[in-house]
Amino acid sequence: MWRVLVFIVALAVLIVITTRWTRWEGNAEWQSTDDAYLQADLTPIAAKVAGYVRELPVQDFERVHAGDVLAQIVDDDYRATVAQIEASVASASAQVQALKAQRELQEANVQAARATIDAAVASAEQNSRDVARQERLLRTGSSSTESAEKLQTAHAQLAAQLAQSRAQASAASRQLAVLAAQQAQAEATVAAQQASLRIAQINPVNIRFLLLHQN
User: CATH for 76-206?
Assistant: First the structure.
């Protein structure tokens, strides 16, 4: 029986020595020595992002393994930045869609203006034929001066309408070019915001210090 007790006591002492032999030293409030030196391996740790430490899961003299989290940085600011850039991307994308819709509408306005020009040209050509015919009738005495004057007045009105239609078509075409440039700029803004978002999304991943290799 006493041999069993001795074995149990020896086993307990061995367990304490192998698992808790440094706890009394590490937990001591005061450290003292007469003539000693310290030899240790130093492993520098640096973060890819700056911030305050939120959590330190590893304590002094604790065994760690590859993949263990050594520290974690507060990531609230980084996540807020990601959310802000996501909102900017959404806003820029909406701007692109709005410009596309405006451009399609403006293209329709250009087509309508060109159709108006075509109609005005057709009316002006018909009026020119009517004026020529009226002049022939007037020379033969088959028509009155009043009829000729009315046709001349209509001819002047049609010429003015044609000039106005051409000016409107030209303005619509220039506005279409402006919208195309604005759309290209908005699309470039979206691309830049998306690039910033990809960079910002990396930062929350880098808030954890991981032990990659174990010697």
Answer: 1.10.287
